[in-house]
Write a structure and sequence with these properties.
Layout (H helix, E strand, L loop, with lengths): L3 E7 L2 E6 L2 E6 L10 H13 L6 E6 L24 H6 L2 H16 L7 E6 L2 E3 L1 H8 L2 E5 L3 E3 L14 H8 L1 H10 L5 H7 L4 E3 L4 H12 L4 H14 L4 H19 L5
Parallel strand pairs: 3-4, 4-5, 5-7, 6-8, 7-9
Antiparallel strand pairs: 1-2, 2-3
């Protein structure tokens, strides 16, 4: 890793690229990296701006908190400058509201593309939209002070930024329901025990741990990692026999590629 390039820096999001590793940083620590529609559009843009050479994306937040969730200004009558308030959106046509939420969700979907592996490095609070953004990534390294919580239900809402699917897959339906319905905090010990976190480290070692994991992920050939990720992510929806077929097909592609055989 030799060349560090800034690709994007806007609306609380900075994207830098260091050869095969990209880093997406939430850059508004004064507001605990609270999220807004502008930030979501910047995250979507960051995903689209990734160079083809990138294999690993690290997501991190500046300051003491990863992300305290949605900026509550969204629920005020004035909303954000240049943006409709959420209250005004709710009063509009249902189809427009659905389309707007779908647009917001795009900021959370690209992290699981098969051509990259994404790592969330999470410290302090990861609340609501912040929790869902961490869940959007493939892997999570967390600091010992991490506090996850899904507070949407407590506010009369539901988690709608793609977090429910990975949460259920990671911790199971019953625990996911309990976490969401109560809005309680999940600390580092529970996160690691239940599979929410791959690794827990002291806060001052978080960035180094993310770098070490990124390096380990780069050790294997890219195509093998891409195929393996596709196999594992698809296993959730496949039956046992379907997964056997998928394994054979993927291995056949890898062997043909290693042998220099093109279809």
């Amino acid at each position: 890793m030799t060349s560090l390039d800034s690709v994007l820096d806007k609306d609380g999001v900075r994207l830098t690229v260091d050869d095969a590793v990209a880093t997406v940083t939430l850059t508004n620590p004064a507001k605990r990296n609270a999220q807004s529609p502008a930030l979501w559009r910047a995250l979507t843009e960051a995903g689209r701006a990734l160079p083809g050479s990138v294999r690993v994306v690290v997501l991190r937040g500046e300051g003491k908190s990863f992300s305290a969730g949605l900026d509550r200004q969204a629920f005020t009558p004035e909303g954000f400058d240049g943006e409709p308030s959420f209250l005004d959106m709710a009063r509009g046509p249902e189809a427009e509201l659905d389309a707007t939420i779908a647009e917001y969700q795009e900021a959370f979907t690209w992290w699981r593309r098969n051509d990259i592996v994404s790592i969330a490095a999470v410290q302090g609070h990861a609340i609501g939209a912040g929790f869902q953004l961490a869940l959007a990534c493939d892997l999570r390294i967390v600091a010992e002070d991490v506090q996850f919580a899904m507070r949407e239900t407590s506010l009369g809402l539901v988690p709608d930024l793609t977090g429910t699917h990975p949460l259920v897959n990671l911790v199971g339906y019953a625990r996911a329901l309990e976490i969401c319905a109560t809005g309680r905090f999940v600390n580092a010990e529970e996160a690691e025990r239940t599979g929410l976190a791959n690794l827990v480290v002291p806060a001052d070692e978080l960035d180094a741990a993310a770098r070490d994991l990124a390096g380990a992920l780069l050790a294997a050939p890219r195509d093998a990692v891409v195929e393996t990720k596709a196999l594992l992510s698809g296993a959730v929806s496949r039956g046992y026999e379907e997964q056997r077929v998928a394994e054979r097909a993927a291995q056949g592609r890898r062997l043909r590629d290693l042998a220099g055989i093109t279809d």
